[in-house]
Amino acid sequence: xxxxxxxxxxxxxxxxxxxxxxxxxxxxxxxxxxxxxxxxxxxxxxxxxxxxxxxxxxxxxxxxxxxxxxxxxxxxxxxxxxxxxxxxxxxxxxxxxxxxxxxxxxxxxxxxxxxxxxxxxxxxxxxxxxxxxxxxxxxxxxxxxxxxxxxxxxxxxxxxxxxxxxxxxxxxxxxxxxxxxxxxxxxxxxxxxxxxxxxxxxxxxxxxxxxxxxxxxxxxxxxxxxxxxxxxxxxxxxxxxxxxxxxxxxxxxxxxxxxxxxxxxxxxxxxxxxxxxxx
Amino acid sequence: xxxxxxxxxxxxxxxxxxxxxxxxxxxxxxxxxxxxxxxxxxxxxxxxxxxxxxxxxxxxxxxxxxxxxxxxxxxxxxxxxxxxxxxxxxxxxxxxxxxxxxxxxxxxxxxxxxxxxxxxxxxxxxxxxxxxxxxxxxxxxxxxxxxxxxxxxxxxxxxxxxxxxxxxxxxxxxxxxxxxxxxxxxxxxxxxxxxxxxxxxxxxxxxxxxxxxxxxxxxxxxxxxxxxxxxxxxxxxxxxxxxxxxxxxxxxxxxxxxxxxxxxxxxxxxxxxxxxxxxxxxxxxxxxxxxxxxxxxxxxxxxxxxxxxxxxxxxxxxxxxxxxxxxxxxxxxxxxxxxxxxxxxxxxxx
Lengths: 279, 350
What we know:
By secondary structure, chain A is mostly helical. Chain A is built from 13 helices and no strands. By secondary structure, chain B is an alpha/beta fold.
């Protein structure tokens, strides 16, 4: 039974207050102040458009989009089978798999990123092992490139994908699959015509969630990327910490926020949040 | 053994927000809050300066970390958390230009003597505490016979192959001076920096640079993990590795000297005490302790005579290496910070 309207609003009040006080208010204050430094009225708009359209910003948005998209696809490719296995696993197996998905989730991003650096370095575990068994002669450059950034980010974001897909898959009525099999459908056909369509909202929701989180990434590309893998978050940090140029940082943040909101609008339209994340 | 000391503008890559609010008890006149980079640096400074100062004056010294952007934000918001700022001189120049600092009251000095301070380190609104240097560091195993002996050879990726690293924009100052010297500009003709020429020079070395370092910690880690065999790093950082037995060595030729300094914020609630502290910390005897531990050159010329020869051999700014090096001109950096940040972003993003 739906809650009475007033009660629902009352229950929402604490989180709305928290969001307003510690997020929206400071955000508005910062943007107002920083953009105010750009001039007045139409000056602000033309300055802001110039910053948003600058070459560095365009290049960085492209880098951010490429890395985020690749990360999302990797998470999906690894997460889908994993989530499916999770729906079938029982007892100890289930607990082991869910623990290996969740434990990294509770570990700090910095620690997880450094772990990869230890593994992938020139004198790291992987390179030493490859040389010890004679596969390679000298050390390979596994770190500080686009691939290592995507690897590190996929590892950090995988739990979001797996958990979203898992709840979508768990809500599928397995009798439908049995019915399809009973009608003589092959395994591949059951998957493509029944299971995949029924879990598609989970795929969309998980992908958009991972993508939204990915475009704001900062630590992993900063630590594991090549110099040219500069995502927008890093560009903003530069403006605040190095150039001390808050107006530019504010405009860049606004662009990033706008992109996030657009993706979120798609997320909330195509993915029924209540269905994707049952309580 | 001391751990690496952070002298950059940032202590850790993500630690920008972690400054505690400092509660000031009623006896605030007997306490000073100093901005430092935190960590082991605080312990060394406490042993060599703060404890002696408290003993001599009865004024307690409390430390806290803050980034430059935080200090600026604090000033703009009218907050007064700090009485003394201990940081790189470019940050202090930035604050000075915002009108956030009080002049150093040299006339009131009773412990220190302004005439004893190295002239390049003495300014109306800041006074140097020590100098450190960006030096060429090489792996002795990678270069057993012949190593790059100047920045031009450091840039020569054919004659001296191997992955190398240089400071990133995130460290505060990308290696524009080094790039120009490598391209043939004399160290006394660097300023104003020709940005185009500097970036063209950087483009030549970039294929051999897997990563530019943005924190002192990263610069040291990349050398000790052999991610790179050649790097331009702060001398104290690499000295720590050498002392631990890493097969590294410093080439002091063309070392770039940089300055750490004290400033007193205008909003300090105890400006008198802060000036007294700067006075106390500027005397030779107060500087010997941290110079020994940090391997950075004291700002007081008299302090060098109190240091043993083996330390002078690994320390910038002193009689041995001063003439091999050149001072970085921080005014140019503060005049052009916006331009450089933009040019750097465009350059790395290609």
